[in-house]
Design goal:
The protein is of the alpha/beta class. It is 47% helix and 15% strand. The strands form two sheets. The chain has an eight-stranded parallel beta sheet with strand order 8-7-6-3-2-1-10-9. It has a two-stranded antiparallel ribbon with strand order 4-5.
């Protein structure tokens, strides 16, 4: 057990994790919804609104940055990683380079970015980042995800996690079974169980120290196009059941992704999961929190709308949601 990695993981997990690591393409899509053109300066201004919100450190313990953002500074010239560190928030970095389809006629994909990863870690560590993230995605469709995609992504997540730990950086391992489609909750449960089992088998084979990772999985839900949506309590129960079956107790914590859920639903699900977990602590010993992107940022983005006069309003909206998500991570909402 690496005590330094475990200590950092627990620090990152202590409150919630803001996923502000949207790629160039994704941030452009997000900003366009409020009529703002995406360019390095507008992207910087938007992220600064979140990072400089007065009191963010009360609810957020870690922020995942993108390659563009980790190189930028606030209006005072302070690099974002240092500005966050000065507030008591741990800066992290997305190190994958996005998904690639196995072939044009398939929906299955793997994640690019292992080439040159150790060199990137050296640079990112020098910038002050202390944890990293790698995302693999799985689509539930006819014949998908294939065993090939489940295995390839598990092995790549494990290679990434080992490289991260070798660099002294805590890896967030993110296998995301997408909500896209009309699949049932039972299908999601079956696929997620397969995916997590493969991931932990691969992590073990690669010699990854499980006490120094953070798992970032999806919750167990119906596909978003399915007319039969499970209630909040069912999602909580089935999600914890999958974790109990697949996640070793050595893992210090789980930070759920929101996966396109509305801010309210993602918050309610997290709260229900923790309320149930708190009643059965011996079965679910992990810290269970959130690593949300849209579910933490979406309302603030709308409140800002690209207008300077709306910055304080946007920060208040962001902090209100961050407080709710943090309380939900304790089951106290």
């Amino acid at each position: 057990m690496n005590n330094n990695l475990n200590k950092t993981a627990q620090e990152v997990l202590s409150r919630t994790i803001l996923a502000a690591d949207e790629s160039t393409k994704t941030i452009a899509k997000r900003l366009s919804t409020v009529g703002v053109e995406s360019n390095p300066e507008n992207n910087r201004q938007y992220r600064q609104i979140l990072f400089k919100a007065d009191g963010i450190e009360n609810y957020v313990s870690g922020v995942i940055l993108y390659d563009e953002t980790v190189r930028q500074s606030d209006d005072d010239g302070v690099p974002f990683p240092k500005a966050l560190t000065d507030k008591g928030v741990v800066p992290g970095i997305k190190v994958d380079k996005g998904t690639v389809k196995f072939s044009e006629d398939k929906v299955d994909s793997y994640t690019d970015g292992l080439d040159g990863l150790s060199d990137r870690y050296t640079e990112y560590k020098n910038m002050g980042t202390r944890f990293s993230k790698w995302r693999a995605v799985y689509t539930i469709a006819d014949g998908s995800p294939t065993n090939e995609s489940i295995q390839r992504n598990a092995e790549d997540l494990a290679v990434y996690a080992k490289a991260s730990q070798d660099a002294g950086i805590v890896p967030i391992v993110e296998p995301e079974v997408l909500m896209d489609g009309n699949h049932s909750l039972e299908q999601d449960k079956e696929v997620t169980t397969k995916v997590l089992t493969a991931v932990f088998d691969a992590l073990k084979k690669q010699g990854v120290d499980l006490s120094g990772i953070i798992l970032k999985p999806n919750m167990i839900t119906s596909g978003k196009d399915n007319s039969q949506q499970a209630d909040v309590e069912t999602v909580a129960r089935e999600t914890l059941e999958v974790l109990k079956q697949t996640v070793p107790f050595a893992v210090p914590g789980i930070a759920f992704l929101s996966g396109g859920q509305s801010p309210d639903l993602a918050t309610d699900h997290l709260n229900a999961i923790n309320r149930l977990k708190n009643k059965n602590q011996s079965d679910y010993p992990w810290r269970v929190t959130a690593s949300y992107g849209r579910a933490l940022q979406g309302e603030a983005l709308e409140a800002w709308g690209g207008k300077k006069e709306n910055i304080e309003k946007a920060q208040k909206v962001f902090l209100d949601r961050a407080e709710k998500v943090y309380k939900a991570s304790l089951g106290e909402l």
